Each structure stands twice: as C-alpha cells, then as structure tokens.
C-alpha cells in the first residue's frame, strides 16, 4: 500500500507548534523556600557558634593569665621559703609588711585619697586590700586605729561595687557593711559633703568604728591598706 503524505503549509506548522506548547508548557522556575530557610538557619547557627567560640577564647585567655599569675606567685613564695630555710627564719613578707597566711599587708601611715592610695599600692607591687573572709577582716581591723581605704568602689556604675581586681561584690559574698540600729546602714551614698556621692569604701569611720565598711567620698584623705 502506498502512503500518502499531505504537505502542510506554514500556517499549519505554526498552529501545531502553538498547540504543542499549550499541551506541554514551559516549566516555571520556583524559588525553593526550604533551601532559603535552611541557609538562614545555617547562617544563624554559624553566627552563634562564632560568638560562643569568641567567649570561650576570652575565658581561656583569662584562665591562662590567672594561671601565669598563680605560677608567678608560687615561685615567689617558693623563693621566700627557700630563703627562710637558708636563714632559718620565716619572714615571708618584706620589711614594713605584715603577714597572714601567704599574704602580706602594708598599713600606711600617710593619708591619701582613694585613687592615690590605689596607685601607691600598685607601685609597691600589690593592690588595695581585697577582703573576702572573716579571718582576713578581723586581722586587718585589728591592725588599725582609724579609718583606712580598702580596694572596693562603685566609681564606674553607681551601686555596682567592684574590687580593684575588677571582680564584682556579689550578694552571696561575705560583706562587713556597717548596720545601724536606727536603720541607716552602709552604703548610703551620702552627698552632703561631695555631690558625686560616696563611691569608695573604707574600713572604719572617722567617729572611731574600725571593724566595719563605710562608703565615703573618694576625695577624702585616709590611710590605706595594701595587699600582695
């Protein structure tokens, strides 16, 4: 059998093409929102992980610094103990300093403001005393007959008391603030003498109490206690 083919004109071809496109339309491109969301989540997690790593790195640096400080302190004490054994004496502290355990304390005779006292303690290789327990409080209080600066202040943020080593005084820490029977207790940030308030802490008061903490104007001249 002979097959007959019909020749189609250009219009017929175009119509067939159009019909074909209608039956089989081009595939539309859709944005894959799941991939976008996943990317955002990954970015957020990467940012959080980076922040955590930075915090851990900072803490590691602080720990390393503390380790080096303790190591230096250990060697210092070891050398002094060796010197004691050689001389058969046990004076761990330099002349003019008094000892309690492995710490040495300097009780000044000069009167300076709080900042000057802090700086002089640093020059002597120590810092204004940081009192963290009852035995230490009782020891330093027993050595003084009048008010002395200690290393506590809220100069940076009012009401946030910080030691000179940048450690905050927390509610759970041992404190020795003066508590008045009349209800007026320390710290009271009294501003009648100094408009800036009372941002530095002294052991003792001008009125004679020497075993409690009092906030006072940092500009006042007082004796001070160094520790190392």
Short description:
By secondary structure, the protein is of the alpha+beta class. 39% of the residues lie in helices and 14% in strands. It folds into two domains: 40-92; 98-227, Mannose-Binding Protein A, subunit A (Mannose-Binding Protein A, Chain A).
Q: Care to describe what's here?
A:
The protein has 228 residues and is of the alpha+beta class. It has two domains: 40-92; 98-227, Mannose-Binding Protein A, subunit A (Mannose-Binding Protein A, Chain A, Roll), CATH 3.10.100.10. Helix content is 39%, strand content 14%. It is built from four helices and eight strands. It has helices at residues 10-23, 33-87, 114-123, 134-142, and strands at 98-100, 103-107, 127-128, 148-153, 162-163, 200-203, 213-216, 223-227. Strands 1, 2, 3, 4, 5, 6, 7 and 8 form an eight-stranded mixed β-sheet that branches. Strand 4 (148-153) and strand 5 (162-163) form a beta hairpin. It is globular. The N and C termini lie far apart (117 Å). Residues 1-14, 16-21 and 23-28 have low confidence and may be disordered. It comes from Hemibagrus guttatus. InterPro entries: C-type_lectin-like, C-type_lectin-like/link_sf, C-type_lectin/snaclec_domain, C-type_lectin_CS, CD209-like_CTLD, CTDL_fold. This is C-type lectin domain-containing protein.
